[in-house]
Design a protein that fits this description.
mainly alpha; 19 helices
């Protein structure tokens, strides 16, 4: 009998077979979407049990499954105890084991590299600093340098919540490049190394969110994928929860409701692993509700909405992460209104969205702009042209005077424009259509 190395590696990461299978399937889906495997493999608990059986005759995974397993565990499948059997190309004679080398995540082929969409050199300040450091053999990373970058990451997240991500993804990308350079070239102890990797994960998932808010969906999915890979490899369940929440929200906008539900539920599994506070659970519940609403599942949507409000009403906690601070009452009311709108409940959606707009504060102009765009759509669906026009005017005002910078909000105005176009003869609509075209041009 031979103990399975794969089982030992799985247990060392505090994962049950069910949890590992869920994460492997999620990783396989992303790799297939990015073209990094030819066909998406499917993993099951039964299959995992066979690979972990206490015998040397374990089934050998097919090539695409091997790619996923190797990236998930960050080691060749041979080290997991999985080798070809005699019917799979092995000879009868003993042979020297061949270990398949696998690239690190940073080196692996991805749909979009770190400096996605640009063939230019790094910014001058970064290039000059890099040259100086690259030639040094004793670049010691100090705690205050990491803290400085951590504060920068928090500042960018705060700016996103207020204004949107259009103007943030470029500087965030430069910061992320610098953090990777510190990891690769710097000298630091184990504790500081963990902080650097955690910071890289934070920048990466933020970069995915900013790219998503800027309408760069392909880049966003790539960054989310890298952030989730890093989270799984380091056992960072907090980062996994945040990234999967972001991925769930993007999936709704991409009209992938079932995918949104899977991401939200997997995020809830990771939330259980770190006993997440109620604000996190409320956010993940409303993310799941949005997925159900997008596929028209009213029953499960209602249940998830009720769960979100139940968790939210339990109040705040000292452990609430900064990425949940946006989830105030106004935002949760708005997200429920968006669910109602997707379910075709236009009157209820208009009521919720109008209430949310009244509750919104000046510190969240991007969220208020999104709410106004949805309110305009709901009012239009309910045949209330006057309130639709009023909501659009307020949204345009946020773009012109409050510095809101969100491609998602602008895209919502385009949708409202097309809905209002047949009513161009109504009072004020013709002029408003011209204003919308001027803003979204």
């Amino acid at each position: 009998m031979s103990r399975s190395p794969l089982k030992a590696f799985r247990e060392s990461r505090n994962r049950t077979q069910t949890m590992a299978v869920g994460e492997l399937n999620a990783l396989a889906e992303r790799l297939a979407a990015e073209g990094r495997v030819s066909k998406r493999p499917t993993f099951t608990v039964r299959q995992m049990s066979k690979w972990e059986s206490e015998t040397t005759a374990r089934p050998y995974p097919h090539p695409d499954a091997r790619v996923v397993l190797e990236l998930y565990f960050q080691r060749p499948v041979e080290e997991l105890g999985l080798r070809p059997g005699r019917g799979e190309g092995a000879s009868d004679a003993p042979a020297v084991p061949v270990v398949t080398p696998i690239p690190l995540i940073e080196q692996s082929a991805a749909a979009v590299p770190l400096l996605a969409g640009s063939n230019q050199d790094p910014p001058p300040w970064l290039a000059q600093t890099t040259i100086g450091v690259a030639s040094s053999t004793d670049w010691k990373i100090e705690e205050h340098e990491v803290e400085f970058l951590r504060e920068a990451a928090d500042d960018m997240d705060a700016q996103d919540q207020q204004f949107g991500g259009n103007r943030l993804w470029r500087p965030t990308r430069a910061h992320l490049l610098w953090v990777h350079h510190m990891i690769d070239r710097g000298i630091y102890d184990e504790q500081l190394g963990r902080e650097l990797h955690a910071l890289a994960g934070k920048f990466t998932t933020s970069l995915g969110w900013f790219s998503y808010d800027a309408g760069l969906h392909t880049q966003a999915r790539s960054y989310f994928s890298e952030a989730l890979n890093a989270a799984m490899l380091t056992g960072d369940d907090v980062l996994s929860s945040r990234t999967l929440s972001n991925m769930s929200r993007q999936a709704v906008d991409l009209n992938k409701g079932r995918e949104a539900i899977r991401f939200a539920r997997l995020a809830q599994t990771h939330a259980d692993m770190w006993s997440a506070p109620t604000r996190v659970r409320a956010l993940l519940a409303i993310r799941e509700a949005q997925g159900h609403a997008r596929v028209g599942d009213r029953f499960n949507c209602e249940a998830a909405i009720k769960r979100a409000w139940k968790e939210w009403e339990r109040g705040t906690d000292d452990r609430d992460p900064d990425w949940t601070t946006f989830l105030n009452q106004a935002e949760l009311v708005c997200l429920e209104g968006m669910c109602r709108l997707d379910l075709g409940q236009t009157a209820r959606a208009q009521k919720h969205l109008a209430h949310s707009e009244q509750l919104q504060d000046v510190a969240h102009s991007r969220n208020r702009g999104m709410c106004l765009g949805r309110l305009a759509t709901a009012a239009l669906g309910a045949g209330d042209i006057d309130h639709s026009v009023d909501a659009v005017k307020k949204a345009i005002g946020l773009i012109r005077t409050a510095g809101m910078s969100s491609a998602r909000a602008v895209q919502q105005l385009k949708i409202v424009h097309d809905g209002l176009a047949p009513h161009h003869g109504a009072r004020g609509v013709g002029d408003l259509l011209e204003e919308i075209r001027a803003v979204v041009a």
